[in-house]
Write a structure and sequence with these properties.
Helix content is 46%, strand content 14%. The protein is an alpha/beta fold. The chain has a single domain, classed as NAD(P)-binding Rossmann-like Domain (Rossmann fold). α6 links the parallel β6 (170-176) and β7. The radius of gyration is 17 Å and the shape is globular.
Length: 241
């Protein structure tokens, strides 16, 4: 896809992977709209020349407000990047409220936004939906069962949506990053296990340009091969993470 002059909305884009995506997509000539919760970070993005929408996607009302706030402008590409990860041991003391919020943000928000923006995407000459999942959608780890489940659910939803939209000029893309060095992964893993947000974003942008249905990034490429050859081995490796 030629990204020049495309109108692109990216959720969770005031920092981390989302902000790097915004920077790199803007460099292609795209018109990028940043959204996030922080008024301060939105203001900083505006200073860099972005249109911003401040919103809290933690509720259904927040999702509806984002769709409404977008207004009458055209939308060519929706990137569902916002997400959160909760480390949790499941038992009597499990943080159930946090796990439910994690599932809402990681799974329900993309579904609601895709539904809300579908009329704009259908009206575009060539459109794209990019759902950012995770290598953990392929094989889960022990420490974050809710996160793994939410990303696996979004992966399955993305596949099904692709089937539904077959024949329409809307590309449905899944991006599967490995562990990325962002605020969300602080204290998790080691520096050697992580890739930079810049490198992650670069692979996603390259995949978008190539209209790839699945963008495997960094070590998720190896995980995909291992899972194909031996799903049990992939599970055993990831279960120790």
């Amino acid at each position: 896809m030629d990204l020049n002059n495309k109108s692109i909305l990216i959720t969770g884009s005031t920092d981390g992977i989302g902000r790097e995506l915004a920077n790199q997509l803007k460099a292609t000539g795209a018109n990028v709209i940043i959204c996030g919760r922080s008024a301060e970070k939105c203001a900083a993005a505006e200073q860099d020349g972005f249109r911003t929408i401040q919103c809290d996607l933690g509720t259904a009302e927040g999702c509806d407000a984002l769709v409404a706030s977008y207004g009458d402008a055209t939308l060519d590409i929706l990137i569902n990047n916002a997400g959160t990860q909760v480390d949790a041991q499941i038992g009597a003391d499990a943080p159930l409220d946090a796990l439910e919020q994690e599932m809402f943000l990681n799974y329900h928000v993309p579904v609601r936004l895709i539904a809300g923006f579908m009329p704009k995407l259908e009206a575009a000459r060539e459109a794209m939906i990019v759902n950012v999942t995770s290598g953990l959608a392929l094989a889960p780890k022990a420490s974050s069962p809710g996160y793994c489940a939410s990303k696996a659910g979004l992966r399955s939803f993305t596949k099904s949506l692709r089937y539904q939209l077959d024949g329409k000029d809307i590309h449905v893309v899944e991006a599967l990053p490995p562990m990325v060095d962002t605020a969300m992964t602080a204290g998790r893993g080691t520096a050697r296990m992580k890739i930079s947000p810049q490198d992650c974003a670069a692979e996603i942008v390259s995949g978008m340009r190539s209209n790839r249905a699945n963008i495997f990034i960094g070590k998720t490429k190896l995980l995909k091969r291992v899972q194909r050859l031996s799903p049990g081995l992939a599970d055993r490796i990831m279960s120790k993470m």
